[in-house]
Amino acid sequence: MTRPKVLITRRWPASVEERLKRRYDVTLNEDDHPYSPAELKLALQNYDAVCPTVCDSLPAEVLNVSNKRCKILGNFGVGYNHIDIDAARQQGLIITNTPGVLTESTADIAMTLLLMSARRGAEGDRLVRSGLWTGWCPTQMMSSDVTGATLGLIGFGRIAQAMARKAHHGFGMKILYVKPTAADPAIAADLNAVRCASLEELLPQCDYVSLHCPGGLETRHLINENRLNLMKPTAHLINTARGDVVDSKALIDALRHHRIAGAGLDVYENEPHLDPDFSTLDNVSLLPHLGSATIATRTAMGEKVLANLAAFFDGGDLPDRVV
Ligand code: DGY
Q1: Is the CB of 291 under 6 A from ligand 1?
Q2: Is 154 helix (H, G, I), strand (E, B) or coil?
Q3: Domain count, the chain
């Protein structure tokens, strides 16, 4: 019996690649290079399933390629704003993602960035490495308290709620959130979380603001100059969601002129080619999109894709169908 042809666009944890090889006629990306649009088009023409990830851009122009063999995109990642969903739907392509398994690791990175930004962790590391540190003194690198401060969450899905648990139960933080619908009352009660009617209501009250909404056209530049101006000058902005939720130029300007105290970023507009001005600022902590980058999480993400592919090729219900 011929096995389905499956293409994986980037390297995955070895244990998952082994499992793929056992069941499918699989093509791996041995040198882990980013696929070009032409390679992605060829993949759609030559494989039954293509498994892209968050760094593969799949606009209509790629998805509409003629003579497609591919029936399913098993996305390695929960976010799918890199895929033109309307074009996929029109082309009859099924899309699945990997929700649930990266919740805690992504919330951990959001908390890491919050602590780094508040306590000037990256800046302190640079000072020690530079050899310019002259020793402890009472006024050196003073920073902001985290314990007991107010955290505002934009979006209140799985990852935001996991961050709220860590912040509230671990650091005694007060939790505010904005979300189109109210959270489950039991969850809100456990976190003592208060819903705000708008960003305009939430932003002026927060010491820390953390973004947890999906990327895409609806949320592009949700955090712009006007909204940055609503934040306290002592506040910090944390982004582990998607880069284009924040207007980078406006954020750079706000940081440069100390209209907000700091920012912690894991994601960027035009990733990985972030605005070079970020690197000139001491009050921003920069990570290379590490949210889900633990061995256990990345393995679990691969296993989720496997489960979705298995359901598709066995004719069962797809556990994580997006389209
Ligand atoms: C996702 O899954 O969307 C993250 O950005 C990468 O883990």
Answers
A1: yes
A2: strand
A3: 2
